[in-house]
Amino acid sequence: MKKGIVILTSVLISMVCFGQEKNKKMTFEVDGVCEMCKVRIEKAALGVPGVKYAFWDIPSHQLSLIVDERKTNTMQIKSAIVHVGHDTKELKATQEAYNSVHPCCRYRDDDLDDSKKH
Asked: What is the pLDDT of residues 59-70, one digit of tens each?
């Protein structure tokens, strides 16, 4: 009887563990302006363990991701992105990180003039 309960418990635990979806789709806004920004943002996101797919859409500024939630979370991804100089709604890049991006990639209003807009 005890052996049967142990086996039944093991089976139920296994079903719960395998039944959880590990990959999650998410999107959030990331500031940027051009193809160089796109490469930098996607590379930063993909450098976070657990990020399986990253695509940043230039016109909408939306970063679409597929992540393994067991290995990462949104704030870790956003931290990696601000580290390379791009702002999100919740986190802002340091001035030093922002200044490290190419001049044509600067998107903050006070840095834009008509000659730099894409």
From this structure: 999 999 999 999
Per residue in 16-33, pLDDT (tens digit) is 555 556 899 999 999 999
pTM exceeds 0.90 for this model: no
Dist. CA 89–CA 29, nearest whole Å: 7
What is the SS3 assignment for 31?
A: coil
CA separation for the pair 39, 86 (Å, rounded): 12
Q: Are 77 and 65 in contact (CB under 8 A)?
A: yes
Contacts for 18-23: CB closer than 8 Å, 24+ residues apart: 22/68, 22/69, 22/70, 23/52, 23/66, 23/67, 23/68, 23/69
Coil, helix or strand for 15? helix
Distances (CA, A) of 12 to 2, 4, 7, 9, 51: 15, 12, 9, 5, 29
Rounded Cα distance, 110 and 25, in Å:
34
Query: Distance between CA 81 and CA 43 in Å, rounded?
Result: 9
